[in-house]
Amino acid sequence: MYVPLVSSMSLVKASPSTEDCEAISGIPLKGLHGKDELIWAANKNGKYSVRSCYQMLSPHVENRQAWTRVWKLNLPPKMKTFFWQVCTDCLPSKERLLQRRVSVWPVCSTCGVDRESTLHVFQDCVLAKEVWWSQNKSFLQVGATTFAAWADAVKGRCSKEELEQFVLICWSLWKSRNDKLWKNISTFWRGVVARGETMLAGWKEARVQQSDWKASSGGERGGGDGTQGKWQPPGAGVVKINVDAAVHSHGDWRGLGLVARNDKGSFIAGRSVRERGRFSVSTTEALAIREAVLWAAQAGWAEVIIESDALSVVQRIADSDGISYEDNIFAEIRHMIARFANLNVHYVQ
Length: 349
Hints:
The protein is α/β, with parallel strands linked by helices.
């Protein structure tokens, strides 16, 4: 629904719809004149993309928190991607291939008894049952009709370490299935478990070696590049403005804080702003930078450095061609920066 910008909060609050009131108050007003545009709200740059549409329509949105937990597991990326494929029934089991009209023998190559579905490979096959009975009994889910339902139960009741073990064994079971199908190599349950553990141990050892190499060669980013650590004064004649923003978690208020210091590190001035508006954190951080640019222009500072701890906002100010509400703010900031002799926006931790 298109909602025109309204500058009077009293008119906005007169709306009988709380949802509309919150939506309107969350639109940052532009300081520059510009035309109204239709935007795609599912993408932060306001432009339509297939990826954003897929994410919006995905049937797994309600499980996003659970999947965030999966992506943070201490496992190789290929294992986590594999687990997602299993849960979304994307693996080429014989049953799935038949559904796609691929001519294959439907019986499981491992047990040679039952029809090979995704759930059969990981739960009902003789090899799978032997593996799971040797492991944590919390993995056993009686009566699951799909792998996704079984995985949801495991994700909901297992610890992080147990979930890692579950994903690891599933990955190794699929490897065993492929070995039997394509190489006619049979694997006993001990071999399934051992292969997964060996692969994971090698991956973790490689990560430790990589970390040690970075530490010894200076590969990790240090404070010397000005992105973290102690505050550094700017060059001669330059004013540095540090900005920060906060959004009230239970209200419609936002707060901006700005501090300006000279090349000797001495305090020049400070400014704080508290306004109504249900803005996102990134929008509020962008408004803080815009406030700093306006402040610098009003004060007559020609050479300025603005520092913010919002990396994505700083990056989008430098390079953004979107049409969203936030992109309008970024365009306005770039327009104002062009009027300065020297003004730069930097990210700082």
